[in-house]
Amino acid sequence: MPKGKRRSLKGLGAKYGSTLRKRYGRVFATLKLKRKCPSCGRWNLKRKSAGIWECRSCSFTIAGRAYDFTPSKTS
Ligand SMILES: [Zn+2]
């Protein structure tokens, strides 16, 4: 991790305490990850709402977890 550089924690200023901000940052980073659509293969799968993921290309909708789509990742 680069020194001094902070990950984007938009929406949260100096509020809520450091532990909660770190936790929020982790969820936020997970949310922003690119996801591959299982239907058309494009990296356009976005979280529509909690547990619902939708492909921007082919409108393929799939149920997933609230803040993450894949339950386990190898990265
Ligand atoms: Zn698709």
Can you give a write-up of this model?
With 75 residues, the protein is of the alpha+beta class. It has a domain of 35 residues: N-terminal domain of TfIIb (Single Sheet). 20% of the residues lie in helices and 16% in strands. The chain is built from one helix and three strands; from the N terminus they run αβββ. The structure holds zinc ion.
Can I get a quick summary?
The chain is an alpha+beta fold.
Could you give the count of β-strands?
Answer: 3
* CATH architectural label of the domain at 34-68: Single Sheet
Kindly name the structural category: alpha+beta
Task: Return the CATH class of the domain at 34-68.
Answer: Mainly Beta
What would you call the shape?
Answer: elongated
List the helices and strands in order. HEEE
If strands are numbered along the chain, what order do they take across the biggest sheet? 1-2-3
Number of helices: 1
Q: State the CATH topology of the domain at 34-68.
A: N-terminal domain of TfIIb
Question: End-to-end distance, in Å?
Answer: 16 Å
Q: Which molecules other than protein and nucleic acid are bound?
A: zinc ion
> Stretches where pLDDT falls below 50 for ≥5 residues?
none
Helical proportion, percent range: 10-25%
Mean pLDDT: 79
Q: Give the amount of beta strand, in percent.
A: 15-25%
Q: What characterizes the major β-sheet?
A: 3 strands, antiparallel
Radius of gyration: 15 Å
